[in-house]
Amino acid sequence: MAVPAALLSMICVQGGASIAKRMFPVVGAVATSALRIGISAIILTLINRPKLSQFTRKQWLYCFLYGLGIAAMNLIFYMAIQRIPLGLGVTIEFVGPLFLALALSRKWLDVLWAMLACLGILLIVPWQNDHLDLLGLFLAFLAGAFWALYIIIGGKISKVMKGRDAVTTGMLVAAAIIFPFALWDGAIFHVTPIILLQGLGIAILSSALPFTLDFVALKNIPAKTFSVLTSLHPAFAAFSGLIFLQEQLTPLQWTSIACVVLASMGTTLFSRNEAG
């Protein structure tokens, strides 16, 4: 179930991101991210009811790092796609898992797939665009670094805790980290019942479901395989941005996404054959 879980997670995340981006003009990226993480934490806590008092010091340390990765990855990514198209932001963000795959690689063929994905990332960036938002690109790269941290800690924490306890506690930690930024931003005070309902939808699609599904995937496949498998995110993001946000990409950028997807398929098929 690892590969289907990872694919369903990506569909949920990009659908939720499209809804979130529609909220940016009203409450901004910081408040939207806080709503997503905060509501997700409440939902997961009510469902899973983790026994926090029974956690060891090592488990709490992993939960803190896991929550830090979740909070930073989501907040910084939302700030990035507020400035650049969703498909572009997700593809650039993938540089984190890509370099993680290279660092963990043990076979030359894995490096070949990762290099193909790297080519896709280089092609998608509009280097000759005078109106290129450099801050948006930098934030997308930074979000990718925290995405890699999320993958690494997710693989480690799955070996010392139950999945539901780890995901729920990590989300609680992420909420505690991100809400001070939301209070400082101030837009959270302008949330209406309609926006709160949209935040609930984003929380379910972008956090509660995908982080649980990711945990299932990370528990059953290596972090290297998972990190390159998630290169399908740009394709889902580009189609989601096109359908729901009317964000157009150039033919070269669509080609770059195809490179990334091909790299993901190659890695997944090779790993499956090797396992068989």
Structural features, described:
The chain has one domain. Helix content is 82%, strand content 0%. The chain is mainly α and 276 residues long. The chain has 11 helices and no strands. The longest helix has 47 residues. The protein starts with a helix and ends with a helix. α4 runs antiparallel to α9 and α5 packs antiparallel against α11.
So how many helices? Answer: 11
Which structural class should the secondary elements be placed in? mainly alpha
The succession of helices and strands, N to C, reads HHHHHHHHHHH
Number of strands: 0
* Rounded mean pLDDT score: 82
Helix content: over 70%
- Main beta-sheet strand count, sense and barrel state: none
Proportion of β residues? Answer: under 5%
The gross shape turns out to be globular
Could you tell me how far the N terminus lies from the C terminus, measured between alpha carbons in angstroms?
15 Å
State Rg.
Answer: 18 Å
The figure for the number of domains is 1
Low-pLDDT windows of residues: 272-276
Domain EamA: 135-267
Organism: Sphingobacterium psychroaquaticum
Subcellular location: Membrane
Transmembrane segments: 27-48, 60-80, 86-104, 111-128, 134-153, 165-184, 190-213, 225-245, 251-270
